[in-house]
Amino acid sequence: MTLASRLNAGETLLTAWSGVPDALTVEIVAAQGFDAVTLDMQHGGHHEDSILRSIVPVMRADRHPVVRIPVGRFEMASRALDFGAEAVIAPMVNSVDEARRFAAAMKYPPVGERSWGPSFAAPRAGSKDPVAWLRESNAATVSFAMIETRAALDALDGILETPGIDGIFVGPADFSIAWTEGATVDGKLEDMMETVARIAGRAKAAGKHAGIFVVNAAMSGRFVEMGYRFLALGTEHRYIALGAEHLLAAARGSLKQSQPPKASGSTGY
Ligand code: 3PY
Ligand code: MG
């Protein structure tokens, strides 16, 4: 099943968020039980070469490869798809014009202007039929436009109506900066949650997917209730820190339990 077909079926999918630009690290992340792995070129260290190589362990682990491109680098969206990504997340899509340019890079004609050349993607997917690839790719790929500014919120309905845009993805950290006019950064900010819920509602009404970066994993259920179905949890820094914290707490707890009782002060003589 493709990421697109699972989202279309209404499944809730959890994606890992990778910023360490190494296929060996991505291989470890892909083995952890997420449904997808998102390789981050915006704030993470991923670059063209690491994307090209890191998609392989994601596919081998039977996870969906997703790429977040840097701001405005829509040509990289086409390249990510040509390398085998199933979905692309474009940050800071603040206008209908930007949404159109993103969609143009994501979809083959007649919807968009994506140029032909799935030179890695087709063999990696085992496809030998170029016409079938052309026919099926537009529906099999997912374009997520990030909503993370007030301008994007104002343009939301136009972005959602743009042909070739399959969904929106909320960046709550940037959105909180916009919401508070630069006073704070807090992706959990209660004050903006009603609007975050409304964004998912408007996506649903437009027949499009809604995704969000989840800063506090315990809020995941609340986001699903709002209508979000593609939830990102990350990053490797966090996975390593949480794993180390867990192991050290277990080890230190067991050390305390196995300490011999404190000496009573008696010398025993
Ligand atoms: C944000 O929260 O602004 C993001 O872009 C998530 O990575
Ligand atoms: Mg952001």
How do the strands and helices of this protein lay out in sequence?
Elements: H1 3-8, E1 13-18, H2 23-30, E2 36-40, H3 48-60, E3 64-68, H4 74-83, E4 87-90, H5 96-106, H6 121-125, H7 130-140, E5 142-147, H8 150-154, H9 156-161, E6 167-170, H10 172-179, H11 193-205, E7 209-213, H12 220-226, E8 230-234, H13 236-257
Parallel strand pairs: 1-2, 1-8, 2-3, 3-4, 4-5, 5-6, 6-7, 7-8
Helix pairs in contact: 2-3, 3-4, 4-5
What is the C-level CATH assignment?
Alpha Beta
Number of discrete domains: 1
**Whole-Å distance between the termini?**
76 Å
Q: What is the H level of CATH, i.e. the homologous superfamily?
A: Phosphoenolpyruvate-binding domains
Secondary structure category: alpha/beta
Q: Summarize the helix and strand pattern as letters.
A: HEHEHEHEHHHEHHEHHEHEH
The number of strands is: 8
Residue share in helix: 40-55%
Give the CA-based shape.
Answer: globular
How many helices does DSSP assign?
A: 13
Uncertain stretches of 5 or more adjacent residues: 264-269
Strand order of the largest sheet: 1-2-3-4-5-6-7-8
Round the Cα radius of gyration to an integer and report it: 22 Å
* CATH domain fold name: TIM Barrel
Ligand list: 3-hydroxypyruvic acid, magnesium ion
Which architecture would the CATH scheme give at its second level? Alpha-Beta Barrel
